[in-house]
Every structure is written in C-alpha cells, then in structure tokens.
Design brief:
alpha+beta, two-stranded antiparallel ribbon
C-alpha cells in the first residue's frame, strides 16, 4: 500500500505571498487615505473662499458709498488699516472707531483676507476664514457706473488646480508649486 504524506499547515512561500499581497493592499489604502485628506482640505478651502466672497459682497452692499475704494487694481496687498472699524479682542476689548467709507473699505479688505497673527496665552488663534485657507489672494474690479464688482479669490490647492500656463490639472505629482484654485463671483450692488 502506498501511503500519502499529507501536508499540514502552510509552507514558507505561501506565507510570504500572503504577506506581500496584504502589504500592497495596505499601502494602497494608505495612499487613498492621504488623497482623501488632501481633497478634504481642498474642499474646506473652497468653502472658506465662498464665505469670504459672500462676506465681502455683503460688506460692499453695506458700504455702497465706498464702492470705488474696494477696487484693488490687481492683487490686494495686506496692509493694516489706519483705523479699526469694528470692535475686536486682542487680550482686551477694543471698541470700533468711527470710519469714513474709504476707511471702512480698507478695513473690510484687511479683515477678510489678511492674517492678524493674534496669540492668546502663547497660542496662535485662528479667528476668521482667511486663517483657514492656504495663501488667499484677493482681486477686486469695481464698475462704479453699473454698480457692479467682480471678486476673485485664489488660494493654494493640493489635489487639483491650474499649472503656470493656466491648464486645468486633476492628477498631480509631488510638484506642488503653481497649483491654485480661483473662485470668481460677479455681484450687482
């Protein structure tokens, strides 16, 4: 009689193949999670941009006499306004100052897109939408005659955007320079 030698357990090659397949699957899941986190950050930035432009349109409507002073003539360069036209807290309560239409426009632009770099007990405090968006750049063109404005906000993105030639990109390698997203809104004031 012939006896069959039955195998018990797994041999080393089967175990190595199982480990290799599992490792590849886990690395794929980790890469997918990283991309999901990047897309989530980009989505959050877009939400902040929408809020900034909505808030700006509302402020321009409220300050219709100062419409011409919102025109940035290109990209807005952050400059601390001469007067703080709204109450704020910097460790102490600060009351709002009386402002002209021009001063209010300067304050609105600064408050919406410029960081204050405010710290409380040694901790940086994020207090406004611009603190949560990656490198916001604001541009406003006003049309005084027709009482309209074109608001554009550009920010850095991680998962999509445009290259330096303006070409739309969706799958991007590790080179993250010159990747931006722009949201433009035309408002009738």
């Amino acid at each position: 009689m012939c006896t069959l030698n039955r195998q018990r357990g797994f041999n080393m090659i089967e175990i190595l193949i199982t480990i290799a397949i599992t490792t590849i699957g886990l690395l794929g899941m980790a890469a997918m999670q990283l991309k999901a986190n990047q897309a989530s950050q980009d989505s959050g930035n877009r939400t902040q941009a929408v809020w900034i432009l909505k808030d700006l349109a509302d402020r321009m409507n409220a300050n219709s006499l100062g419409l011409q002073f919102y025109n940035t003539g290109g990209n807005y360069a952050c400059a601390v306004p001469a007067k703080m036209c709204a109450a704020y807290f910097d460790g102490d309560n600060q009351d709002a100052e009386n402002c002209s239409a021009q001063e209010m426009a300067q304050f609105d632009l600064w408050e919406l897109v410029c960081p204050r770099n405010f710290t409380l007990d040694g901790i940086n405090v994020r207090e406004k939408s611009a603190d949560f968006i990656s490198n916001p750049v604001l541009s406003i063109r006003t049309d005084i005659v027709n009482n309209r404005a074109t608001l554009s906000l550009t920010w850095d993105v991680r998962t999509s955007g445009s290259d330096e030639n303006g070409n739309r990109l969706y799958i991007i390698g590790d080179d993250n320079e010159n990747r931006t997203e722009t949201l433009t809104r035309q408002v009738q004031l």
